[in-house]
């Protein structure tokens, strides 16, 4: 919402982007800007106007509605007994209702709501019952700090901060939020308060969902620098359930981005016309106003809002040349509020502004805008004047940016004491201030609330599997923090891609085409996930201290230049390296061995550049030693494997033959010449001699059975 300044007497200071006739010298011309233009509305916390809990209005019993029969009332005693029986259920239902109204209260893990205390050392629960988490599990580095004057900030999460010096944290630093696919409300609190004693507020940009959404430019307005600024938006999280959603801060020049708190709550997927715009648009808050109330919302008052939105008093946005009166519902119940998908809070509809004095006067609000963007405007009405009892008694026209866009009769649309919402998209603006006017036709116009959102197109992100591969390489290559490899590798396009990374548009998103990380002091290895970089044209990791083997995934068909020289790679060169597009291969100065693949060496043969020097173990191509007969690529080649297999087969055959002869094929006349177990035993020697004599006698007897012709004769004298 728009900044809430310290009270200066009866009136607040005017807004700097109001028409030039009413300039505000407190805001210099170089004030914080959104995309380099008009400052987006920011809700500034003011110590002079502290946030005190505002009690909800107590509604008296409802009167019977028109056309309804009166309710049957039980006897007093029965009513008391019924009340006692139902009291526990009513208390539980009330607690459940409060939890559902404020998603932050139902637990971060249950519904992906997070209240992150940036720079905080421990978790805590605020005075409004909200659980705040220290940022140590979400932040990617940076340094913790404290505002210079903590006594100005009543809430603990506003006193601590985290800043990201680019010299050590790189140009981009991110908070990674584990969010399920869907839409979310994001609120960021940034404060300077001279925490670094430099008396100069920083310049930086902020992105969500890889889309640039906020810009801060030095010097900040004095109130913003001293008391801090709240900015909020609605954005779609990544559609990849396994991917985290990043909120990133980008340093300008040598300035250190600074943030004090980050809050995230889920939003209904169909809220704010989500069916047609939710997946492709970020809605940046340029003014969320309650016209008849003071500021209210979770974290600032005890009032609830299902999406944790904060509603700011609209007095800063009014055209103060006009007069206004406030009206309330007088305790009457408001129907139709707090309903899906938008869940607009009931409190907003219980009060409103109308014109004062002459009935012909208008209501006008002046909203700051960026003329390069379109805006989604929501107007909130409720006929809370009991004197209006029929259609046609209050009719007015809605004028947006000077154009008459509709005529509204609230009672005709929904009747009395019922919430009525109307939305319109404003395009092709020509002024940095958009006028929202309600012009009377019959009676006086009335307005309960107003919302104005810049529709920022969602930027194209890196293809999910390539983004995951880059994060795997970040870990395996041990990329130093100073290089700022955080968030999406290629988006937002307003900023350059990660240091050393070049991206181009692909069919389904941005793709990685070049990695140039030469001489960065890297000491890791190349992860296998590099195979997912299927559009990689050039890879330069030279002059580092990388180790390990070369993964087969380096052989991308798109690769034209490969420079891995002056590292400590070992093992053989994968046969997959050597596509038809490869023109330069520099592998010199490593510890590679084995035979060089022919398709790789053919790069040099066909006019390309190849350098394999300094690898003592490589062989098999001209200018390198010949490989051993049975050896190549650090192991046995095909011939060596065949020879080794044949040798094992022959050895096994010999062993089987010996076993067969010695242990299995023993004839009745085989002789056992085994030496005795104990040569000193006389009995063993005698037994062996006896066996020999018996065998000899049998042999001589058989020899005698042969005739003189050498034929064997049986007992009948017949020869065979």
TrEMBL record:
SUPFAM superfamilies listed in its UniProt record: L domain-like
Disordered: region residues: 1-72
Keywords carried by this UniProt record: Membrane, Transmembrane, Transmembrane helix
Domain Malectin-like, first and last residues per copy: 116-454
InterPro entries assigned: Leu-rich_rpt, LRR_dom_sf, Malectin-like_Carb-bd_dom
Gene3D superfamilies documented for this protein: Galactose-binding lectin (2.60.120.430), Ribonuclease Inhibitor (3.80.10.10)
Membrane-spanning intervals of the chain: 642-663
Pfam families: LRR_1 (PF00560), Malectin_like (PF12819)
Any coiled-coil regions, as ranges: none
Biased composition (Pro residues): 16-26
Protein's UniProt name: Malectin-like domain-containing protein
GO cellular component, one term: membrane
Major localization class: membrane
Subcellular location per the Swiss-Prot or TrEMBL entry: Membrane
Topology of this chain in the membrane: Single-pass membrane protein
């Amino acid at each position: 919402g728009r900044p809430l300044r310290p009270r200066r007497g009866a009136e607040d200071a005017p807004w700097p982007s109001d028409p030039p006739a009413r300039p505000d010298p407190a805001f210099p011309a170089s004030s914080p800007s959104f995309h380099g233009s008009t400052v987006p509305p920011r809700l500034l916390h003011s110590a002079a106007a502290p946030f005190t809990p505002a009690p909800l209005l107590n509604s008296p019993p409802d009167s019977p509605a028109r056309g309804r029969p009166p309710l049957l009332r039980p006897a007093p005693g029965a009513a008391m007994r019924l009340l006692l029986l139902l009291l526990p259920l009513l208390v539980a239902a009330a607690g459940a209702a409060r939890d559902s109204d404020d998603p932050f209260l139902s637990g971060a893990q249950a519904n992906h709501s997070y209240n992150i205390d940036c720079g905080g050392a421990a978790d805590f629960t605020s005075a409004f019952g909200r659980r705040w988490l220290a940022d140590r599990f979400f932040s990617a580095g940076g340094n913790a700090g404290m505002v210079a004057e903590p006594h100005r900030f009543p809430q603990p999460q506003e006193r601590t901060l985290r800043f990201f010096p680019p010299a050590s944290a790189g140009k981009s630093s991110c908070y990674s939020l584990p969010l399920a696919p869907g839409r979310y409300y994001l609120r960021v609190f940034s404060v300077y308060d001279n925490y670094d004693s430099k008396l100069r507020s920083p310049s930086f940009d902020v992105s969500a969902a890889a889309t640039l959404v906020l810009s801060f430019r030095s010097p900040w307005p004095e109130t913003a620098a001293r008391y801090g600024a709240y900015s909020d938006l609605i954005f779609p999280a990544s559609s990849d359930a396994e991917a985290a959603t990043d909120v990133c801060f980008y340093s300008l020049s040598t300035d250190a981005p600074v943030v004090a708190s980050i809050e995230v709550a889920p939003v209904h997927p169909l809220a704010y016309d989500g069916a047609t715009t939710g997946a492709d648009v970020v809605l940046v808050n340029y003014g969320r106003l309650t016209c008849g109330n003071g500021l209210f919302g979770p974290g600032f008052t005890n009032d609830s809002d299902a999406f944790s939105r904060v509603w700011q008093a609209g007095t800063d946005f009014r055209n103060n040349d006009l007069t206004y009166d406030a009206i309330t519902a007088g305790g009457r119940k408001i129907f139709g509020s707090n309903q899906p998908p938008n869940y607009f809070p009931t409190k907003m509809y219980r009060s409103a502004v109308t014109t004062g004095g002459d009935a012909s006067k208008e209501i006008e609000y002046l909203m700051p805008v960026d003329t390069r963007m379109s805006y989604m405007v929501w107007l909130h009405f409720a006929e809370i004047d009991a004197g209006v009892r029929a259609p046609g008694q209050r009719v007015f026209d809605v004028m947006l940016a000077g154009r008459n866009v509709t005529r509204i009769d609230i009672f005709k649309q929904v009747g009395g004491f019922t919430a009525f919402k109307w939305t319109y998209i404003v395009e092709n603006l020509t002024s940095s201030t958009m006028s929202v006017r309600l012009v009377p036709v019959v009676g006086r116009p009335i307005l309960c609330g107003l919302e104005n959102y810049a529709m920022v197109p969602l930027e194209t992100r890196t293809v999910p599997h390539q983004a995951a591969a880059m994060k795997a390489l970040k870990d395996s290559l041990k990329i130093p923090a100073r290089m700022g490899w955080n968030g999406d590798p290629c988006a937002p396009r307003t900023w350059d891609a990660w240091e050393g990374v070049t991206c181009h548009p692909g069919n389904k998103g941005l793709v990685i085409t070049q990695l140039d990380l030469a001489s960065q002091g890297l000491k890791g290895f190349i992860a296998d996930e590099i195979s997912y970089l299927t559009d990689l044209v050039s890879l330069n990791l030279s002059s580092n201290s990388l180790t390990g083997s070369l993964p087969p995934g380096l052989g991308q068909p798109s690769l034209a230049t490969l420079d891995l020289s002056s590292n400590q790679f070992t093992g053989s060169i994968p046969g997959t390296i050597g596509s038809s597009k490869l023109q330069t291969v520099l592998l010199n100065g490593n510890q590679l061995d084995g035979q060089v693949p022919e398709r790789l060496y053919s790069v040099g043969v066909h006019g390309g550049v190849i350098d394999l020097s300094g690898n003592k173990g490589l062989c098999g191509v001209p200018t390198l030693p010949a490989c051993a007969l049975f050896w190549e690529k650090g192991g046995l080649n095909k011939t060596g494997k065949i020879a080794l297999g044949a040798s094992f087969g022959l050895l096994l055959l010999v062993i089987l033959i010996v076993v067969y002869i010695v242990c299995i094929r023993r004839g009745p006349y085989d002789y056992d010449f085994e030496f005795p177990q104990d040569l000193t035993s006389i009995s063993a020697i005698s037994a062996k001699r006896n066996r020999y004599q018996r065998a000899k006698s049998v042999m001589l007897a058989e020899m005698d059975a042969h005739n003189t012709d050498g034929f064997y004769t049986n007992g009948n004298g017949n020869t065979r």
